[in-house]
Design a protein that fits this description.
Distance between the termini: 33 Å
Largest sheet: 5 strands, mixed
CATH superfamily: 2,3-Dihydroxybiphenyl 1,2-Dioxygenase, domain 1
Number of strands: 9
Number of helices: 2
Pfam families: Glyoxalase
InterPro entries: Anthracycline_SecMetBiosynth, Glyas_Bleomycin-R_OHBP_Dase, Glyas_Fos-R_dOase_dom, VOC_core
Protein name: VOC family protein
Strand content: 35-45%
Helix content: 10-25%
Shape: globular
Order of helices and strands: EHEEEEHEEEE
Structural class: alpha+beta
Radius of gyration: 14 Å
Number of domains: 1
Organism: Curtobacterium citreum
């Protein structure tokens, strides 16, 4: 039985570019960095950037890393757009909350999620 998520590993092709994306575009803290493995602190969840596996962007589904926006989802979307993120659409609203998809520097699927208000 699983008791929680220990870490998320994300394949990357260019470690320096990937570290810069997670640090500079998303504003997360880099806690360990090397050519083949780097660790990012995402509010207590460790994201491992794995340079030992090849990243292969595809549109056929797969894992998505979902982040909580620091402020409003609208403000965070504007902020990452200004910093050059590859935003994959607009904010969509659902009964369970709002999401907006984007890609990291290596083509991995990411999104911001905001729960419903009220």
């Amino acid at each position: 039985m699983a008791s929680g998520v220990a870490a998320v590993w994300v394949p990357v092709t260019d470690m320096q570019r990937a570290v810069a994306f997670y640090r500079d575009t998303l504003g997360l803290t880099v806690t360990d960095e090397s050519d083949d493995w780097s660790e990012i602190d995402a509010n207590g969840l460790m994201i491992g950037l794995n340079g030992r596996e090849s990243a292969s962007p595809s549109s056929g589904g797969g894992a998505v890393v979902t982040f909580q926006p620091d402020g409003s989802i609208e403000d965070e979307l504007a902020s990452i757009r200004e910093r050059g993120a590859d935003v994959q659409g607009e904010i969509s609203e659902h009964p369970w909350g709002k999401i907006v998809p984007f890609k990291d520097s290596e083509g991995n699927d990411l999104q911001f999620y905001s729960p419903p208000q009220g």
